[in-house]
Structure formats: structure tokens, C-alpha cells
């Protein structure tokens, strides 16, 4: 399968909630296979814009899609679709949008129709009818903006968990749990308990995810960078540490990914 992905920024007012959108075109005539998707530091909403499959049966109409928060490699939903669209939510922001904790989605492919708001199905239909990615971005901005303005208030993640998650991403992982604890003026164990409750994982695990997302972006922007330099820029102690962590999170060594990036998907 050859899924070519382009990323798009959300409207400024949504950037505390959504990190980015992506659109993909599948050039494989046989539809999606079990292509490996690397984990990211975001809650991923993946929307095939064409027919879906249930077993061996092709279902008519646009698929509603899947939502998940992954710390392990996973596969795209099985679909005949040639066009795909994705929304990458900041995990600490999702409770305030849909009233859904990131911990409920950890390493679990949930149906958007069941896990998110009922209006999401109507939104998916409008996306499938759009003919350009710029129109899909506009529709998604409009849907999320309207939803946030009109939906009933939802319980949010703990305020210092929200701040800590943002700091981890902003500082490109050059931060420790102890540093976060001192910055936020709370105990390390209190931070770890709240992080686990709200996001389903520890701050250290989220740092690993964020570091992986950062280094994958570096590779996409600079595919010829030596692995030693990637390990330094990614905040790893040395190349051996980089190799171990990369394989632990993705199942492959960095050299294999750099040599064959088309075999994997990164959101």
C-alpha cells in the first residue's frame, strides 16, 4: 500500500485542542492492507472517506472511522477507500471536547460513532462529499469550532496534567519528571497518579511518545541525517539509547525505517 500523507494546521482557535490534521491518498489498487502505523503522542481519529469492510463484505457509504491513543504499532482500519482524513487531538484536551478520557482509548481502536458525539456521523458524511483537502480542513475547523461553542461543558483533565503534557511537547522532551514536578509545584507521585488517571500512562511514557513523534518529524524533514545526529537532536543520551527506544516503541530499528519509510505510516 502507498498512502501519501500531507499534514495541515487547524484554525488558531483550535490549536490547544488539535495538533494537526492529515490527508492521505492511497495509490494501491487493492485498498488498504495491514500497514503498520507508528504510535504518536496524539489521540488519532482516522477516517476512511470511502466504503468500509465488515469481514469480507464491503459496506456502502462512508465509514465513520476509528479513534485511539496508541503506545504500540497498529494498523489502519480495513477499507476500500482511496482517500483518508485524520485528526490528531492533544490527549489532555479530549475530555473537555467529547467528555472522553484518553485512558479509555489507550491501545484500543474505538468506533468514532460510539466513542464521540452523535453529530460526528453527519460530519463524516460531509467530509466524504468534499472534493479537496482544503475543503475538508475548512469543514473540520467549522465542525469542531461550532461543537466547542455549543456543546454542554465537559469535565476536563486535571489542570496540571494539561500543563505538563503541553510542556513535554513544547520542550521537545528535554525535560524530566522531576523538572515538571518542580515547575508545577506538585509532588512527583501526585503528578504521576494524575497523569495515569487522565491519560492512562505515566509522564515518562508520554515523554517517550513525544520524543518519538519529534524524531519521526526530523526524519521526514531531513531523511539524510546520520543516526548519531538524529539521536542527539531527539534528546537521546547516545545512539545506542536511540536504537533501543525506537525499536521498543515501533518494533523496528531506526536504520530500517530510514531505509524504507514507505512501509510505515506516521501521523
Number of strands: 11
Helix content: 40-55%
Q: How many helix segments?
A: 11
Quaternary structure classification: single chain
Shape: globular
Mean pLDDT: 86
Count of spatially separate domains: 2
Order of helices and strands: EEEEEEEEEHEHHHHHHHHHHE
Short description:
The protein has eleven helices and eleven strands. The protein is α+β, with helices and mostly antiparallel strands and 267 residues long. The protein folds into two domains: 148 residues; 107 residues, Orthogonal Bundle (Arc Repressor Mutant, subunit A).
Detailed description of the structure:
There is one protein chain. The chain is α+β, with helices and mostly antiparallel strands. It folds into two domains: 3-150; 159-265, Orthogonal Bundle (Arc Repressor Mutant, subunit A). The protein is 43% helix and 17% strand. It has helices at 94-98, 112-115, 119-129, 133-150, 159-170, 177-184, 188-199, 203-221, 227-233, 239-250, 254-259, and strands spanning 3-8, 18-26, 36-37, 43-48, 52-54, 57-59, 66-69, 74-75, 83-89, 110-111, 264-265. Strand 5 (52-54) and strand 6 (57-59) form a beta hairpin. Helix 5 (159-170) runs parallel beside helix 8 and helix 9 packs across helix 10 (239-250). The longest helix is centred in the last third of the chain and has 19 residues, at 203-221. The relative contact order is 0.15.
Amino acid at each position: 500500500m502507498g498512502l501519501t500523507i500531507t499534514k495541515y494546521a487547524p484554525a488558531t482557535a483550535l490549536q490547544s485542542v488539535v495538533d494537526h490534521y492529515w490527508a492521505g491518498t492511497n495509490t494501491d489498487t487493492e485498498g488498504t492492507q495491514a500497514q503498520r502505523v507508528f504510535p504518536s503522542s496524539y489521540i488519532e481519529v482516522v477516517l476512511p472517506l470511502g466504503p468500509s469492510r465488515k469481514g469480507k463484505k464491503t459496506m456502502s457509504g462512508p465509514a465513520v472511522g476509528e479513534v485511539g491513543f496508541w503506545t504500540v504499532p497498529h494498523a489502519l482500519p480495513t477499507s476500500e477507500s482511496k482517500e483518508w482524513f485524520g485528526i490528531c487531538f492533544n490527549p489532555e484536551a479530549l475530555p473537555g471536547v467529547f467528555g472522553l478520557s484518553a485512558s479509555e482509548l489507550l491501545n484500543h481502536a474505538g468506533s468514532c460513532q460510539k466513542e464521540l458525539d452523535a453529530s460526528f456521523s453527519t460530519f463524516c458524511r460531509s467530509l466524504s462529499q468534499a472534493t479537496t483537502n482544503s475543503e475538508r480542513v475548512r469543514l473540520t475547523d467549522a465542525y469542531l469550532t461550532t461543537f466547542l461553542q455549543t456543546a454542554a461543558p465537559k469535565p476536563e483533565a486535571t489542570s496540571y496534567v494539561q500543563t505538563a503534557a503541553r510542556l513535554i511537547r513544547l520542550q521537545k522532551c528535554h525535560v524530566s519528571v522531576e523538572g515538571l514536578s518542580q515547575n508545577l509545584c506538585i509532588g512527583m507521585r501526585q503528578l504521576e497518579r494524575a497523569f495515569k488517571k487522565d491519560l492512562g500512562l505515566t509522564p515518562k511514557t508520554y515523554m517517550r511518545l513525544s520524543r518519538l513523534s519529534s524524531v519521526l518529524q526530523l526524519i521526514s524533514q531531513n531523511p539524510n541525517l546520520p543516526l548519531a545526529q538524529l539521536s542527539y537532536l531527539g534528546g537521546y543520551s547516545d545512539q545506542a539509547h536511540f536504537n533501543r527506544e525506537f525499536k521498543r516503541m515501533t518494533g523496528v530499528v531506526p536504520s530500517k525505517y530510514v531505509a524504507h519509510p514507505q512501509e510505515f505510516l506516521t501521523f
